[in-house]
Amino acid sequence: MFVFFSVSISLRVVGISVPSLKQRGESVTLTCDYDLEGGKLYSVKWYRDNEEFYRYMPRLRPPQHAHKLDGVKVDLEKSSARRVHLRELTLKSRGIYRCEVSEEAPSFHSAQAETFMEIYYFPRENPRIVGHERPYFPHEPLDVNCSSAKAFPPPELQWHINGQKVTETSWLTNFEAKTASQGLMVSTLGLRAPAKPLMKIRCIATIGNHRREKTVSIVTNSADRRKASNFNLTLVIIICIFKVINLEMIS
């Protein structure tokens, strides 16, 4: 004899609200919106990278409980069955956040949703440009590098020449981001565009909507200046030879 049970799964998570990008040191409120559709709530649990850090169980007193997890500081006073508030975010706070909702007995049905939150640090310092100090001859390839200040994640770098973004890939040299102190990163991008007169180059570092930039001028030597330099050098050599001859004649 077989007995069949008809089970109606009514619980569903309507939506999870987790910012995709937050700055180190900030606070954040994560929300989990669910619909029990007549069922009773058993628990709401929050995880970061599959490690539980907060649960809400209405049958318990108090109903809230926070677990210790590196990079996650729960403010219980600002947390509830539908939200959890985190204080003083660090770079270790980044990860996949999951909300899991369960119904009361006898079904104990559960539903969940998850999304990734990135933590960034963007400094006040502008990028640093090196290699622009020396003069260049027209059409000579630049040998210029731009490095971001220490940040996380590695900032995206762009070069602009006289207000125009450089898209010619053969002019750009990509370097692997380097690890700095406190888990921060430094990005570097080289520029090998041909030099030309009245040339201003700008390096822009961005993370999300944040940006820092640095602009410098490139000094170019014209062909006339090169000829003048060669003429002056020849003149100096002739004068030196003339003085040597005079000294030999006197002696």
From TrEMBL:
<feature type="domain" description="Ig-like">
    <location>
        <begin position="25"/>
        <end position="109"/>
    </location>
</feature>
<dbReference type="InterPro" id="IPR013783">
    <property type="entry name" value="Ig-like_fold"/>
</dbReference>
<dbReference type="InterPro" id="IPR036179">
    <property type="entry name" value="Ig-like_dom_sf"/>
</dbReference>
<feature type="domain" description="Ig-like">
    <location>
        <begin position="127"/>
        <end position="217"/>
    </location>
</feature>
<protein>
    <submittedName>
        <fullName>Jg26173 protein</fullName>
    </submittedName>
</protein>
<dbReference type="GO" id="GO:0016020">
    <property type="term" value="C:membrane"/>
</dbReference>
<keyword id="KW-1133">Transmembrane helix</keyword>
<dbReference type="InterPro" id="IPR007110">
    <property type="entry name" value="Ig-like_dom"/>
</dbReference>
<dbReference type="Pfam" id="PF07686">
    <property type="entry name" value="V-set"/>
</dbReference>
<dbReference type="Pfam" id="PF08205">
    <property type="entry name" value="C2-set_2"/>
</dbReference>
<dbReference type="InterPro" id="IPR013162">
    <property type="entry name" value="CD80_C2-set"/>
</dbReference>
<dbReference type="InterPro" id="IPR003599">
    <property type="entry name" value="Ig_sub"/>
</dbReference>
<feature type="signal peptide">
    <location>
        <begin position="1"/>
        <end position="15"/>
    </location>
</feature>
<keyword id="KW-1015">Disulfide bond</keyword>
<keyword id="KW-0472">Membrane</keyword>
<keyword id="KW-0732">Signal</keyword>
<dbReference type="InterPro" id="IPR013106">
    <property type="entry name" value="Ig_V-set"/>
</dbReference>
<keyword id="KW-0812">Transmembrane</keyword>
